[in-house]
Amino acid sequence: MAVPVAFFAVFFAYPVSAIVGRGLKTDGTWQFGRVGEVLTRPDILDVLWFTTWQALASTALTLLIALPGAYVFARFDFPGKQVLRAVVTVPFVLPTVVVGTAFLALLGRGGLLDELWGVRLDTTVWAILLAHVFFNYAVVVRTVGGLWSQLDPRQEEAARVLGAGRFAAWRRVTLPALGPAVAAAALMVFLFTFTSFGVVQILGGPAHSTLEVEVYRQTALLLDLPTAAVLTLVQFAAVGAILAVHAVTVRRRERALKLVDPAQTSRRPQGPGQWALLGGVLLTALLLILLPLGVLVERSFDGPGGYGFGYYEALQSAGGSGSTFLVPPLEAVGNSLRYAFIATVIALVVGGLAAAALTRRAGRLVRGFDALLMLPLGVSAVTVGFGFLITLDKPPLDLRTSWILVPLAQALVGVPFVVRTMLPVLRAVDERLREAAAVLGASPLRAWREVDLPLVRRAVLVAAGFAFAVSLGEFGATVFIARPDNPTLPVAVARLLGRSGELNYGQAMALSTILMLVCAVSLLLLERIRTDRSGEF
Amino acid sequence: GCGGSDGTSAGSGASKGSGSKTVTLVTHDSFNASEKVLKQFTKESGYTVELLKSGDAGSALNQEILTKGSPRGDVFFGVDNTLLSRALDNDLFTAYEAKGLDRVADGTEQDDKHRVTPVDTGDICVNYDKKYFADKKLDPPQTFEDLIKPEYKNLLVTENAASSSPGLGFLLGTIAAQGEDGYQDYWKKLKANGVKVVDGWEQAYHEEFSGSAAGKKAKADRPLVVSYASSPPVEVLYADPQPKEAPTGVSTGTCFRQTEYAGLLNGAKNEAGGKALLDFLISRTFQEDVPLNMFVNPVVKDAKLPEIFTEFGETVDKPATVAPEKIAANREQWVQAWHSIAVK
Amino acid sequence: MLSLEAATVRFGKRAALDAVDLEVADHRIVCVLGPSGSGKSTLLRAVAGLQPMDGGRVLLAGQDQAGVPVHRRGLGLMFQDHQLFPHRDVGANVAFGLRMHGAGRAESERRVRELLELVGLPGAERRAVAALSGGEQQRVALARALAPRPRLLMLDEPLGQLDRSLRERLVVELRTLFQELGTTVLAVTHDQGEAFALADRVVVMRDGRIAQEGSPLDVWQHPASAFVARFLGFDNVTPATVTGRAAATAWGKVPVPEGSPQGEVDLLVRPAGVLIGAPEDGLRCTVGVRTFRGNHVTVRLTPENAPVLEAECALRDTPDEGAVVGVRFDEAETVVLAGE
Amino acid sequence: MLSLEAATVRFGKRAALDAVDLEVADHRIVCVLGPSGSGKSTLLRAVAGLQPMDGGRVLLAGQDQAGVPVHRRGLGLMFQDHQLFPHRDVGANVAFGLRMHGAGRAESERRVRELLELVGLPGAERRAVAALSGGEQQRVALARALAPRPRLLMLDEPLGQLDRSLRERLVVELRTLFQELGTTVLAVTHDQGEAFALADRVVVMRDGRIAQEGSPLDVWQHPASAFVARFLGFDNVTPATVTGRAAATAWGKVPVPEGSPQGEVDLLVRPAGVLIGAPEDGLRCTVGVRTFRGNHVTVRLTPENAPVLEAECALRDTPDEGAVVGVRFDEAETVVLAGE
Ligand SMILES: Nc1ncnc2c1ncn2[C@@H]1O[C@H](COP(=O)(O)OP(=O)(O)OP(=O)(O)O)[C@@H](O)[C@H]1O
Ligand SMILES: Nc1ncnc2c1ncn2[C@@H]1O[C@H](COP(=O)(O)OP(=O)(O)OP(=O)(O)O)[C@@H](O)[C@H]1O
Ligand SMILES: Cc1ncc(C[n+]2csc(CCO)c2C)c(N)n1
Ligand SMILES: [Mg+2]
Ligand SMILES: [Mg+2]
């Protein structure tokens, strides 16, 4: 517990409180009056209201659409399942500008809906909500599906023989067992959408704005730190309220469950009902995720002289142009992977330790720490980034210009994922299994390694996948810190998009496609990693 | 090391004492220079340039302000006239009169104490889709006044002045042209004439503007967009094969001029190197490298423009300008007023 | 009520149910016996529709159940490992089936109270299931299965973790209850006493097939095969050649009842039919381990050149260990087994 | 080996272990019997160190175990609900303890093979535990507990889900194994036959206390109280006034053995001591339900104005249901119970 606490104290609590403190303190005295002042501004209240309700709506919609997906991925075997599971995670790494493009192509003028029914959703809230579902589908599918695949199906069978229909059995037996995982996924989706930035701007138009945008504007553009500090506190309050609700609802539901080997629980769908469900989920994934991604891929091949690899070739030659603008794409891939790898390792170590500590201990302090771990998802990257600047400026921690800040900032976002995906599973592990290991001679540490670890293996992989994807796609912090000579893929994409000219745009699409590919392949490889299954003799 | 794979970036600029052979240039994301030119500087002065890019222009400057007194580098480049006052008020820079400062264009020097040195100028202007206007047999608009004429109804797309730099530039342009009293009225008319506001330049240019390659794919339907005067030559430069004529043009009467400055940071570890770098930034070698890397104009009179600029670009004779102090004082209020007219 | 026709379930190559035909008449209590792994639980799961079948049909009240979802079959199943719902307390577990069948709150509270009383856990409604002992959990599972009063109730080792006196009381009460309600019951048990006490008929399974079926008395008195005999705990089984009223065995001549099958067969001598007398009087055996079995003592007797025999005698008649005795056989306790 | 001193475990107000004192000598096999919920599992968990105690001490080989973590106590425990590791196959489950004790791969493979053979699951190493039948899981759990050969092995209903013949074989083999290895064993069982066959001593628990302790024969022949007698399955228990060699009971005068305690006591008549004769000859009873119990039949007899009696008789001597018979009592099968 010491490691995660130290990590969070140094790389989160201290920087963020420093920057907030700087905003709220003038000449050494706290100016709490600012809070009331900002909070009574009607435009800020509008933003707060919109931010909150769109986040709630997005979360609800995401759960609605993704829970059947989680079921299908947990319980059914079908060809291409692993690939599809990796692909639905791809949106996670994409820069929002690029995603905006894809969604506008589908929902906007001349888009699919426009052509078919003359419906345009751009600048409506629907576009925002759908894009949020697009981004966060995988969060639900993976965190919930991870636990689901390990639930003993006989529990549901017990309900069925007592007269419960399929849905009733699910609602009354499986859902309560899944509760903590669903809550964890919902919490993460809420935090992402609550702090949504690019999606709202691009798809909602300038009329829609979130708190996050305001914080960014006040900090990065206007350097109005007092206002930014108040807004950050408001975000804190909102996030804190949600965390409190989460803590209360989850605490009542956490129970030891009989976890089984996931390989035993999935089978080919049987009967028309199950096939229909599978078909429905695949169709949803196709329409909602593959289609937007497809638009990007299509554009990356759609050169001036018809389809071809022109933009990809152009990417290659850009390396030789002798400018600081572009590096060869392979190098950007390498940079991205390196940063993401380090960030993932940090996130896994810090988050894993935190999750292990949180499983065994209870009490107010621990619960508070649990909540603190989630806060990075609810705090603007600018706040953290600027906080770093004013705090990590003294040796031995003068990291302001060090590359390590990039993976550190990314890990800050990865840790909540690790904790939230691992905790529901860890807390479901029956204490008696650990006891069984202990009476067979395993020390507590060994028991953790031999019992908990294999059972949370899936969750760890899911968490690692997310930490990796988050780091791969992170832009807000990376763009502040990344050295110009080693940009990551999203930074390179953003640079290209910042210029006019057909080749620049095409290359941006090509690079985005490469980013998607890198993400999907990495996740697939990650899933192949198997910690010992049958156990060494 | 992981990130700093090559030797030049192995350490941090701030840790280097004076007499170091590295000079750190803190700048924004859009900064670019040819490797060749940077090597040239090393050859001439003996200093190696280390680049530190930190976000867009606004946040790069604000980061410098936050770390004032203990800067991460020696020279900062990238503060423009809309932000200049903030930099100067915060006492960010040490005065230094760069060698060759006499060659810079008139009116670009804004600080008589030489705390900042102008490096480039660029114009934010309305661009138009040539093909659209040719097909419609319509003259493209040339001035701010033209934009509110009924024949240009529903044709213009611009960016959010609250968060986008060209969006703000265009707003400032209208303020310069219409006056502080008139611009609100002008925007009401513009709004009535169907101006569309989107959030960022990328979206406006790639998604809404029918003149761009991406816009064509997206079936964009706005032939007028707020962009840069350099956008047409860039369209030519980054097209394959190169067209004989730029697909887009510039409405030269709708331009707002931005000048970007560099300055020696207060508390720089390598002041000598910083001074050498400032000298270099307005040297002919660097200045002639500027257009093709950052797509803005050199600030010195003796720099030659590349052919692609002279051939496909248009010169802006009377750009609108607003004094930096005035921008600093009124910016938020102007943007708010604009927001309630143009967006809500 | 229930009939299975050639019901087959395969796991990989092995058949857990191998073309099983079974009829259970209305209101009957049938106990399924069989060694561990012989397919008893699989049989119940197949009937419930929880285990997809690789062949054959399940009929309930004459209706083919193919395509009928589990919860519409109107049956109950108590799982071997209980599968109590950890998120619900004891009362809510028991009430679950009632709620699914739309019982009102008062009604269901009353039934829960009754059932918990029946299984000896009065007032346990609000307890967490994780805080129950093993036997208490089993009793809650039993109450939960009984609650909705299904027309066909299947119980998988319902009393396995309970002590004898509780089990005996429950057997009696369950029998009465089932008779009252007219419930048809299919129960798995490994306790023969329970099977005999509870069942109208017993089914002995072996490797996915039915090895014998009949009334308890029938099965006990006339095991169909050496397997069944051994499974029922009889160890005195030996190959024999029957001629008329006598069988030639390794233990010498053994009298057999009238009308026994003739020829090469297996012969069972029940321990009670092994009569211990003076050494000169019959087969000479040395007395080995004596096991005290409550009311009786079983004695292992080792003859010269013949397999060990097991004899049962009253406590006071037990010979000393190491003594040499003579053994005769009681015709009434020998059974000629039809070959495998 | 093991001694408990005033071991106390409370759940809320109720004591699951109430100041239990217990000594288990080296190499002994002790069986713990007791009704469901009487604290048997809690006792084992307390010894293992899995259940924090509210009072008392646990000593192993004379060492107070307070503060000694579970994995250092050098004992084994087989859980009532098995707790197999779901993510490991059968072989890895069994090998787990061996690995924890640093056994080599070849050695551990050999032991696993041996143990799986012992429990009747040869070649099951690579099977998934979720694909095992209930009894198969129990046997894997047993093998897992046996594998590291702990000095004190605790088994919580180790054979409860197995059929009789397998159980009988295992009891014999386990006894031999434990004797060979000199293992001290503390086993919970609800099967009295198992307890008698396996145990050197039995401990009968009641509500967290020890109700009786002794050799199986001892406990069986001289239950210490009406509770123990009833728990062992004897229903013919009644209050009595003993004077000399006779006891006055609701069933009339019953002869008692010489040297029986005198005065107001409880009296037990074993079913075998209820002798059925002609109606005029003794206590008049009506024959009720007859339950076939394998070798014997138990018969419920209803006297006029007295509690029901249970009698045991051989199959051929069984009276018809509804018949009226006369009952006498066999002095050798009556036991005067020391008061509660
Ligand atoms: N975690 C717990 N919280 C509260 N009460 C408990 C807990 N564990 C056991 N008990 C109670 O303690 C008593 C003794 O439980 P224990 O498991 O020792 O019984 P047992 O003798 O093993 O019974 P069984 O034969 O049914 O397994 C029971 O009444 C049980 O309900
Ligand atoms: N899901 C499964 N996958 C593979 N084999 C299985 C599966 N379930 C059961 N089996 C096997 O099928 C056979 C029959 O199992 P079943 O559970 O019906 O046995 P059972 O008669 O109930 O035994 P027990 O008395 O031990 O509970 C066993 O050999 C078992 O290993
Ligand atoms: C609404 C919404 N927008 C973006 C993402 C993509 N994303 C995944 S992690 C992360 C933070 C990295 O700093 C971001 C932006 C999302 N999931 N939800
Ligand atoms: Mg079974
Ligand atoms: Mg127990």
UniProtKB/TrEMBL annotation, chain A:
PROSITE patterns: ABC_TM1
Pfam families according to UniProt: BPD_transp_1 (PF00528)
Compartments where located: Cell inner membrane; Cell membrane
Ranges that cross the membrane: 53-74, 86-106, 126-145, 181-205, 225-248, 275-297, 339-359, 371-392, 404-423, 459-482, 505-526
Alphabetical UniProt keywords: Cell inner membrane, Cell membrane, Membrane, Transmembrane, Transmembrane helix, Transport
Main localisation: membrane
InterPro entries: MetI-like, MetI-like_sf
Membrane topology qualifier: Multi-pass membrane protein
Domain ABC transmembrane type-1: 48-244, 333-526
Record bears the keyword Membrane: yes
GO cellular component: plasma membrane
Similarity remark: Belongs to the binding-protein-dependent transport system permease family.
Protein name: Iron ABC transporter permease
Automatic annotation (TrEMBL), chains C, D:
E.C. no: 7.6.2.9
Enzyme class label: translocase
Superkingdom, taxonomy of origin: Bacteria
PANTHER family: SPERMIDINE/PUTRESCINE IMPORT ATP-BINDING PROTEIN POTA, SPERMIDINE_PUTRESCINE IMPORT ATP-BINDING PROTEIN POTA
Protein keywords: ATP-binding, Nucleotide-binding, Transport
GO molecular function: ABC-type quaternary ammonium compound transporting activity; ATP binding
SMART domains in UniProt: AAA
Protein name per its UniProtKB record: ABC-type quaternary amine transporter
Organism listed in the record: Kitasatospora albolonga
Domain ABC transporter: 2-232
Listed InterPro entries: AAA+_ATPase, ABC_SmlMolc_Importer, ABC_transporter-like_ATP-bd, ABC_transporter-like_CS, Mo/tungstate-bd_C_term_dom, P-loop_NTPase, Transp-assoc_OB_typ2
